[in-house]
Batch of 4 targets.
Target 1
Amino acid sequence: MVRVSGSGKELKRICWLIVAGLLGACTPAPEFTDATGQPVSLHHFAGKPLLVNYFAPWCAPCLREMPRLNALAEEGEIAVVAINYDPTTPAKLGQLATRYKIKVPLLIANEDAKLPFPRPSALPTSYLLDSEGKLKQTLIGELDPSNIEMLKATISRMSH
């Protein structure tokens, strides 16, 4: 029979704390905040392709493409979120959604977010991620019906 000394128990406890810390570190910090102030992470959308669209209320092409993004999200094949390019508050996001009839979730990107795509240099910019959150395509400019058909074709190729 082996006796466990006090220092052995302490060592075991330290090992468990290290393991717990490492497991905790595997959970990424939420990348976004939604219009209700809740944290949202990209892994909430895992299992389905995701279109991340950067927009601003002062960007006319961004607002023109919103009904198309709403319709695309409604079809259900691709999850769609819109990120407000400018610093804002959750309350202002709610007001934007109402004013511009935006049905897709509006998000604020957190400053220290580790995203699989860069902050865009032009608006609107959309990033297509696969169901595992890997960047598959970057689309700069307004999404028109032909761009959206191309996105759908890309999605169907990814899922087969």
Note: Residues 34 and 107 are 5 Å apart (CA to CA).
Target 2
Amino acid sequence: MTEHSRNIAQCKRLIPPLSPELHKGQAGRVGVIGGSKDYAGAPYFASMTALRMGADLSHVICEPAAGNVIKTYSPDLIVHTDLGEDVAEEKVTEILKGILPRLHTLVIGPGLGRSKHMQLAARVAIKLARENNVYIVIDADGLFLVQTDPSVVKGYKRVILTPNVVEFGRLVESCGLDQNTEKSELAAALSRALDGPTIVQKGAQDRITNGHRTLISEVTGSSRRCGGQGDVLSGAVGTFLAWGKNHEERKEENNEDAISPEDITLYAAYGASALTRTASRLCFADYKRAMQTGEMLGYVGKSFEEVFGSDSVTDQAESTGVLSQVGGIVEGLKKSIL
């Protein structure tokens, strides 16, 4: 078995079954904090990716200007337009405290912007998530907050940072790391400097590390770099983390061996990277240079099946319950006729 196959096998342990025994919400409740007056597309891409992967519910918490637009993109999203410019920190805390118990994971950063009040909202969200042991993904302008104040994530092992090449360089600098460190070791050094966060160093290969163990995602993607693909990745990571949270709860209830939180972040990032790269490749095959991220969303489902296998999208109701009984009756009638 190849290293990739072993990693995917672990990723599949996190994926909840399509089972009639699950109720709404058990297959993932993802929250995206982002969306400002200038950016409405990014939080849509991240939150819609979660739904396309099979998360049950996807929330966007954003500025009113962005939220009113995002609501027109899809009726499937739950959009909270509460983060206005005039909202004080106490009110932001109250708002997020009301939403957080409804979520399994938070994605912070897509379309967040760098305005004072949105950066404050991100800071409050991270603080509350840490207090409640919630998994977090931080991307885009959420990383700007980390660059200016690394302490917001320092020591927290349930957070994944997904920097591009420029963001990665700024994080390395803000943590005072030696720029002469071997490039292949920088991501692990950054994770150790932050004492916990898992780093996804995006590039020709995605280097995923918690400072002690590193996975390399080399799944073939495309060379088209249209804006928004990073938001697809962050939404995918957030979904896997939501499943990771449920994995912990399921295994605890059944007294079974669970994947550790440190490994959950690694495999969540690896699975999301493989999915996003595959969706990019499949989309490019059809659209070539005209490819846009909005079209890429339509390939998430097909990519999921290609990466994780047909069993990952099989409805257990087809082999149990009423459907199984109907199938048995039909087979019986066929035999009697023959």
Note: The beta strands are 29-33, 57-61, 78-80, 105-108, 135-138, 159-161, 198-201, 206-209, 214-217.
Target 3
Amino acid sequence: MPTLTGSIRARLSPHGLGLALLTLLTGCDGQQSALNPAGVGAQSIAELFWWMSGGALVIWAAVMGIAIYATQAHPEAHGIRGARWLIIGGGIIFPVVVLTGLLIYGLMLMPQLRSTEAIGLRVDVAGEQWWWRVRYQTEAGDKVELANEIRLPVGQRVAFSLTSPDVIHSFWIPSLGGKVDMIPGRTNKLVLEPTRTGTFRGACAEYCGASHALMNFAVVVMEPEAFTDWLAGQAQPARAPDSALQQAGQRAFLSNGCSACHSVRGTEADGTVGPDLTHVGSRLSLAAGTLPADVEAFQRWIGHTGEIKPDVRMPAFGMLPGEQLNAMAHYLSGLK
């Protein structure tokens, strides 16, 4: 049986250290990495991280060097006065100077991350158990509501107003900027400026209940012209069902009480409790990043909500005939 010492030696072997370093470096990439920045805020945070890591490494190397020198050198190699200055200078003054410099550098970044100058777009986001209510403010003053997906124009500063009607959540898009808590009864502000197009992942960074891990959202950064066209399309009412199956799905949706919680603009459905479903079929995911937005996933979600997302407030409709579930799934997936 391997001993604890043997296990530790195995982990500290060159092979183990190399594997750990490789894991660290590969974990710095992807759609949800603060060290793979795609925004001005994330770039500043990443730079601060690397400077702080370098400062920590320098302090560690200095302290370890002093410790090794003190333990290995002969007593007559240095006097009491020299030893005192070695400890005070290397163990106190040097770390304080380095840490003070890092603190000043970090504080200098804060004004530019919180500045509200030259805002090109304003978005209201409410974190709810366990999904995201998103409202865009158009140039005409109208508000366009959707859920669990945010699209932004590249190169423009976006001001977010963040709230919560139930518990504390935390809004975080690692590739674009830092996280900000969403506190009931309070509105917090966040400014982001995407620097490149792509699809990124946002998440709730504050434990908020049973389905906290299933509260994610997609962030799509687009060219300004494409974003303008997309927002104009989102402001339009839902299109009428194309097929007989989708028409049957719309009737089932309205007759089974779904319209009491959900809104589909252009129809009788005007509920405000749950997400707006006007263009739900055009979103990249379903149930706050839990499922893909296809017909099969819609049917699973409608019939088995509690099994897929524990403690979700939406009731399951698994008691409905399979034909109705299938028709509703086709209707919702067709809301582009």
Note: The chain has nine helices and twelve strands.
Target 4
Amino acid sequence: MKFIIVFVALFALALASNPQDAETLRYESNVEPERYEYAVETSDGKTAQEEGHLEDQGTEDEAIVVKGSYSYVGDDGQTYSVNYVADKNGFQPQGAHLPVA
């Protein structure tokens, strides 16, 4: 499950850019049985980092809790950043450019 989350996040980052235009400047990853973390930075200004851990292991409430962030340079030249948490309450993004309920 953890591998899938990391793979999907990295796949989304790869799709967002043309691989001929950007190079990976930094890639760090650590995947363990009950936790993981990764960080990626590309030459076109994109960054992503995430960490997750297994909570309530062995119970009916067992779930992966994820915290992370990503940023990118928009077409307008502005850098957009999003911090997020994903847990039993769902995906909760925060960013200066995102509407607040």
Note: Residues 54 and 64 are 5 Å apart (CA to CA).
